[in-house]
């Protein structure tokens, strides 16, 4: 039986093609359909899945935990087919796609649902509904439970301390965003861009019931209230709030790349983050890495200057 998946490969932001894990012919009996006899008698459905992922870390380490367990995936797909009935196999395909996107290393999924015993009077070989769903869809989806969020704050214009304090205050006021820990303030030299003043930096650890896109929108709104203008790349700014990570979500979306693509090499993010959480880890291309280890390797770490007299936590 043909897979029914005519979608092409997917390219990472770096230009490299993503790897694929293919699972074909998962067959389970379900009671999906618009007719009463389909609900009573049931019929076999066949599902093909292609996961677009990066298997390099798993291949290098020979570690099952760094890839998708395709036995468990087959069970998940079969359970959905056997589960609550729906009228349309379009809906069934959507449910399966969402479930396949849950593992953190999956960037996109192709799903084909076959209904070879569909109630059609004419002679036919198969009925297939095929969908592609990319992980960027999850940027728009509110989580079922609060997820941890890491936000990096920076400013090098105006009254920098008051701006950071105001940003923390405004983040605390965002409905659906719970600020848990505010790091100490660290002063750093600017990285890249034109000549400009030094930065004050901090990290906020929070939990949120907002979607990742809504967290970003809240950060952008607060930046705008403090006069942030994006006229020069890496130029001076009154306030910068970057979403560093949102749970274990990976995204190559141009609007919101997760985890932040340069956080692993930026001491002005890593140092305050480590000060806020000594056990912090960051999801990198090669898997989770300790923030403490990444900080030791960060090229701009020599410019860090602790500012313990500048406090943000519990300030009103």
Automatic annotation (TrEMBL):
It holds the Pfam family HPPK. Residues 233-244 form the 7,8-dihydro-6-hydroxymethylpterin-pyrophosphokinase domain. CDD domains: DHNA_DHNTPE, HPPK. Its EC number is 4.1.2.25, 2.7.6.3. Transmembrane segments: none annotated. It catalyses: 7,8-dihydroneopterin = 6-hydroxymethyl-7,8-dihydropterin + glycolaldehyde; 6-hydroxymethyl-7,8-dihydropterin + ATP = (7,8-dihydropterin-6-yl)methyl diphosphate + AMP + H(+). Keywords: ATP-binding, Folate biosynthesis, Kinase, Lyase, Nucleotide-binding, Transferase. The keyword ATP-binding applies. Gene3D superfamilies: 3.30.1130.10, 7,8-Dihydro-6-hydroxymethylpterin-pyrophosphokinase HPPK. Pathway: Cofactor biosynthesis; tetrahydrofolate biosynthesis; 2-amino-4-hydroxy-6-hydroxymethyl-7,8-dihydropteridine diphosphate from 7,8-dihydroneopterin triphosphate: step 4/4; Cofactor biosynthesis; tetrahydrofolate biosynthesis; 2-amino-4-hydroxy-6-hydroxymethyl-7,8-dihydropteridine diphosphate from 7,8-dihydroneopterin triphosphate: step 3/4. SMART domains: FolB. PANTHER family: 2-AMINO-4-HYDROXY-6-HYDROXYMETHYLDIHYDROPTERIDINE PYROPHOSPHOKINASE. Catalyzes the conversion of 7,8-dihydroneopterin to 6-hydroxymethyl-7,8-dihydropterin. Belongs to the DHNA family. This is Bifunctional folate synthesis protein. It comes from Kineosporia mesophila.
């Amino acid at each position: 039986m043909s897979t029914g998946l005519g979608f092409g490969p997917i390219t990472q932001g770096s230009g490299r093609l993503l790897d694929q894990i293919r699972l074909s012919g998962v067959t389970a009996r379900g009671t999906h359909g618009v007719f009463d006899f389909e609900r009573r008698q049931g019929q076999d459905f066949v599902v093909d899945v292609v996961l677009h992922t990066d298997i390099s870390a798993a291949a290098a380490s020979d570690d099952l935990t760094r890839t998708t367990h395709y036995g468990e995936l087959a069970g998940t797909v079969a359970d959905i087919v056997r589960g609550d009935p729906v009228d349309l196999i379009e809906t069934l395909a959507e449910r399966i796609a969402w479930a396949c996107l849950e593992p953190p290393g999956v960037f996109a999924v192709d799903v084909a649902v076959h209904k070879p015993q569909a109630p059609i009077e004419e002679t036919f070989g198969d009925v297939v509904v095929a969908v592609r769903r990319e992980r960027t869809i999850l940027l728009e989806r509110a989580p079922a439970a609060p997820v941890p969020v890491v936000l990096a704050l920076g400013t090098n214009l105006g009254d920098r301390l008051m701006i950071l304090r105001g940003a923390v205050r405004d983040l605390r006021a965002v409905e659906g965003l719970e600020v848990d820990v505010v790091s100490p303030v660290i002063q750093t030299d600017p990285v890249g861009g034109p000549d400009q003043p030094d930065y004050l930096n901090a990290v906020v650890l929070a939990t949120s019931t907002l979607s990742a896109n809504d967290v970003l929108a809240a950060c952008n709104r607060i930046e705008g209230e403090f006069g942030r203008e994006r006229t020069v790349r890496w130029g001076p700014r009154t306030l910068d709030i970057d979403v560093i990570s949102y749970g274990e979500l990976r995204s190559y979306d141009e609007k919101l790349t997760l985890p932040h693509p340069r956080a692993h090499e930026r001491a002005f993010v890593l140092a305050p983050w480590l000060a806020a959480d000594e056990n912090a880890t960051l999801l990198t291309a090669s898997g989770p890495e300790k923030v403490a280890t990444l900080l030791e390797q960060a090229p701009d770490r020599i410019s860090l200057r602790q500012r313990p007299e500048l406090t943000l936590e519990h300030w009103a």
